[in-house]
Automatic annotation (TrEMBL):
Pfam families: FAA_hydrolase (PF01557). One of its GO terms (cellular component) is mitochondrion. This is Fumarylacetoacetase-like C-terminal domain-containing protein. One of its GO terms (molecular function) is acetylpyruvate hydrolase activity. InterPro entries: Fumarylacetoacetase-like_C. It comes from the Eukaryota. It comes from Paramecium primaurelia.
Length: 224
């Protein structure tokens, strides 16, 4: 147990950082008027991961009957230690990219928001972070000009360019690293475009990340 404890209290252990309200149309569909004055940061636990090395998998929903929403997102992995990162140095800190879903228990989130409480449980449940394998940074010409799309049962529900992000990746790295030292292996989710909505048992979720006509990553999930 002492060895385990020493492994756990290592400040170099990685973390998962996520961004909320980073696409203007999504802000409006959630009842807001404009993006926040600063990026909205939250974290997801590693137990929420559902790693899809070949892009395919089964998504087990929680046993409760809460409404679970899909949020398709671009993510990236941090390559090296970073504190007070300068925006013009941002590329040095990118270790690669991935496609992910940030699943949200919308009922629980609304309940906690109404009470003014944190909504970690709405974002951090088991399997609430499906993600693809890593895309090498060399394959991505401009992460701020990629196309995100999610289909449910072959119907497009989310589709937008990462150019619509209000806070771009250099902004996010600079802001986060003011408060949290970024470590190699940290994962960062950059926010979701508009079109979020519920998923249900037997749904087929098919997400893609494209660079022009090239598909960089895709995920294909059956909901159970």
């Amino acid at each position: 147990m002492n060895l385990l404890f020493k492994q756990v209290v290592n400040p170099n252990n990685p973390k998962i950082v996520a961004i909320a309200k980073n696409y203007v149309k999504h802000v409006k569909e959630m009842g807001g008027d404009e993006p926040p004055k600063e990026p909205v940061i939250f974290q997801k636990p590693f137990t929420s991961l559902l790693y899809l090395p070949d892009g395919n998998g089964i998504l087990q929903l929680p046993k409760h009957n809460h409404e679970i929403h899909h949020e398709i997102e671009l993510g990236f992995m941090v390559a090296k230690n970073g504190k007070n990162i300068q925006k013009d140095k941002w590329q040095e800190y990118i270790g690669g990219y991935f496609l992910a879903l940030d699943l949200t228990d919308r009922e629980m989130q609304a309940h906690f928001k109404k009470q003014g409480f944190p909504w970690d449980l709405a974002k951090g449940q088991d399997n609430f972070f499906p993600l693809t394998d890593l895309i090498t940074k060399e394959k991505v010409k401009d992460p701020n000009n990629l196309q995100l799309e999610l289909k449910i049962n072959q119907k497009v529900v989310q589709n937008d360019s990462t150019s619509s992000m209000y806070y771009k990746i250099p902004d996010l790295l600079a802001y986060i690293s003011q408060f949290m030292t970024l470590r190699p292996g940290d994962l960062v989710l950059t926010g979701t475009p508009h079109g979020v909505g519920p998923i249900r048992a037997k749904d087929n979720l098919f997400g893609t990340l494209k660079q022009g006509n090239e598909t960089l990553a895709q995920l294909n999930l059956i909901v159970e």
